[in-house]
Amino acid sequence: MKSIVMTQLGVPEEKKLGILDLIDIPMPAVGPEDVLVRIAYASICGSDMHVLKSNLSADLLETISSNLPWRFGHEISGYVEKMGEVAAATTGLKIGDRVTANYTHFCNSCYFCRTGQENFCEHPQAHFDGMSEYVSWHMSQIYKIPDEVSLLDASQTEPCSIALNACQTVGVHFGSRVLISGAGAIGLMAVQLAKHAGASLITVSDVVPEKCELAIKCGASGTVDPREKDWREKAMELTHGRGYDAVIECSGASSAAQSIVDLMTVNGHAVLFAMYNPDFEMKIKPFETLYQQSKHIHGMYTSADSFPKTIAMLTSMNFDPIIQGVYEKEDYQRAFEDQATGKFAKLVFKFAGE
Q1: How far is the CA of 64 from the CAs of 5, 8, 155, in angstroms?
Q2: Residues with Cβ within 8 Å of residue 65, at least 6 apart in sequence
Q3: Are strands 104-105 and 76-83 parallel, antiparallel or unpaired?
């Protein structure tokens, strides 16, 4: 079967991307608890671009360099092709079912799994092989999608689960004033989810005018450009100077992350969950920020238990403005080069299709 892989690391100092290829690999084995999925669509994640640029921490670079060719893909949808005997007997899935999947298999035995914190599982098995014609993942990772949801839209379940978890983390609710920093796919999905949750004001910050236009289409009240000298003042004016109840920072830009403290209201909440420069250190004044103003700054790692809620929300989402290109697998080079421009919210590979 065919799979999109990286055969050589990128060179960050020269801004050279890693070398890609479409190679033949063996069909994956199907164990008793596994489900073989014929991939319909697999989309490019921002983290894939960090890998392709080799813009990673030293330990991750070592892991990837020692496992070349490195396979890509964890945002997927497809069809159930085959099941192991345990999966067939217990999941309720049938051959041909339309599904999506969470790319991580949790051990369900460690301290964190047993205390409802699966995203910190001590023995996770993460799968990044979804840009392939088939994957074989554990039955606990596979979710059937609603009949009315297209497989193209279903390929966005994983990033949408991140956006949903971010909105939950900062407590978006009726009347919330929300600032979303970064109008990539997750930011745009967060706009829609915040709107569904009852936010009264949704401001989006991004440097790409086309993405700001997409944010308005997705339901944002207004946008600001952080390249402008007075952008913070403009953002604060929209809240009548009070600041934002909920700030979602998903741009990955260090300057944006540093700005969130000044944009939060007293007793407000902010979440940061992008892949920031490993050397970036965020500066705050604990006495003022945490004690006097009681501002809450949250981290967030993956989505874990948000998948069932996300799948329930798929019928309420509009991915048309977000998915800006669908490529055949043979066009892998062009697709990744287009994604590297930063102009596009989400680009998707078509494998089996609908």
Answers
A1: 11, 10, 24
A2: 9
A3: unpaired
| Pairwise CA distance, residues 278 & 113, whole Å | 27
Give 143-165 pLDDT, tens digit per residue. 999 999 999 999 999 999 999 99
Distance CA 180, CA 129 (A): 30
What pLDDT was estimated at residue 304? 75
CA distances from 251 to 183, 205, 207, 235, 272 (A): 7, 9, 10, 16, 9
Q: Which pTM value belongs to this model?
A: 0.95
Q: Which CATH number fits domain 2-156+322-350: 1.10.1040.20, 1.25.40.10, 3.90.180.10, 1.20.1250.20?
A: 3.90.180.10
Q: What is the mean pLDDT of the chain?
A: 95
Classified by CATH at the fold level, domain 163-299 comes out as Rossmann fold (3.40.50)
The domain limits of the chain are 2-156+322-350, 163-299
Q: Which two tokens stand for residue 204?
A: 């989006």
The confidence score (pLDDT) of residue 275 equals: 86
Residues in the chain: 354
